[in-house]
Amino acid sequence: MQFFFREERYGEVGLEGGLARWRIWGNNERLAMSMSEKPITDFINKHFRHFNAASLKEAADGYIRHLEGGGKMLITLAGAMSTAELGLSLAEMIRRGKVHGIVCTGANLEEDVFNLVAHDYYERIPNWRDLTPEDERALLERHMNRVTDTCIPEMEAMRRIEDAILREWVAADRCGERYFPHEFFWRILEQEELKRSFQIDPRDSWVLAAKEMGIAMFVPGWEDSTLGNMYAAHCMMGDVKNVLTVRGGIEYMIELANWYMETSRGSSIGFFQIGGGIAGDFPICVVPMLHQDMRRTDVPLWGYFCQISDSTTSYGSYSGAIPNEKITWGKLGVETPKYVIESDATIVAPLIFAKVLGW
Questions:
Q1: Is the pLDDT of residue 98 over 60?
Q2: β-strand pairing of 72-77 with 101-104
Q3: Residue 155 predicted with pLDDT over 70
Q4: Is residue 79 part of a domain?
Q5: Given this model, what pLDDT does residue 35 score?
């Protein structure tokens, strides 16, 4: 795309403290300027040269090479990435075939859908570091659940989704059917009543994109989420008779192992980890489980590894462990491309996705 501008020439006049400049437009002179079709990519290539910036660029380039070589990519989501609206870039990554599996916390699964139906009721708190305990109590009294600088509205988001998904839990329970947590979300996203309440462009919901593209989903530790708590309460109150109506973590591991064995027959699988915790540790262990516990010798190691984290390497934390430690556990190999970006994932992940997408 070409944009044409008249040439700018400048005159100068001396003033106290420096020079003042003014424009002189040439009458018939034109300067052709090209606008890049991938400005973010070009900016990263030019400016991200050292330290975490260089690691970001190298990780994105490694991601691209992995896909171009026929590889697949599993992404793991910890933290509050859905409340940070990562779907604005992640959903497009999914639609464009750059993501082939997702492992996420229960919070990230539900919070993307909370945002989908209640975005207009969210409140941002720019001065969140200055809040007093009394300020926090005032938010509680208004049923505004704070995640750093963002408040999720309980009634418009959490209770609306509870009402929708409770009907699915009870219906499945009465029929003796069992589904994974993400499958119950697939079911409520088909409800016309819920569709009418969408408050953002549905294309910006990564959960909806994952459903539509049919990519593999795994949600370990779903019990540690708002809806997991609600499910426990409804089991205790007798609305759901069989606590196993929602399938759990061991079954997710079996599903993940089957997916990994099937997918790795034709493609190397990469591991792109945002944050740490169970979302990262649960899936990366599938390889040593297959090797050491099932005695499988035909299963390859992960073919790419990247972690975005601000966790420091100390005191045995998984989130702060450097990639080489994973070699000792049989998760990564000596030759596996490994990248660590020690920074804020809300900044880093969208930039990497933009480069992978060629934005």
A1: yes
A2: parallel
A3: yes
A4: yes
A5: 66
Is 125 inside a domain boundary? Answer: no
Question: The domain that contains 180 carries what CATH number?
Answer: 3.40.910.10
List the structure tokens of 309: 């984290």
Q: Is 271 helix (H, G, I), strand (E, B) or coil?
A: strand
* Section 313-341 average pLDDT: 88
pLDDT at 25: 40
Domain carrying residue 22: 1-35
The span from the CA of 154 to the CA of 185, in Å, is 18
Q: Looking at residue 30, what is its pLDDT?
A: 40
Of 215, 191, 214, 189, nearest in space to 202 by CA? 189
In a domain, 255, yes or no: yes
Q: How many independent structural domains does the chain possess?
A: 2
77 & 13 share domain: no
Crossing angle for the helix pair 39-47 and 345-357, to the nearest 10 degrees: 110
Place of tokens 């409520």: 188
Is residue 75 located within the same domain as residue 5?
no
* pLDDT tens digits, one per residue of 160-184: 999 999 999 999 999 999 999 999 9
Give alpha helix (H) positions in the chain.
39-47, 51-68, 87-95, 106-118, 133-141, 160-175, 181-188, 192-195, 206-213, 226-236, 249-264, 277-284, 286-288, 323-328, 345-357
* Mean of pLDDT values over 193-217: 97
Task: List all residues 6 or more positions away from 267 whose beta carbon is below 8 Å from its beta carbon.
Answer: 70, 71, 72
User: Is residue 246 domain-shared with residue 234, that is, in the same domain?
Assistant: yes
Domain presence at residue 139? no
- Enter the pTM of the model: 0.88
Average pLDDT over residues 129-148: 98
Alpha-carbon distance of 259 to 251, in angstroms, equals 12
Asked if 31 and 43 sit in the same domain, the reply is: no
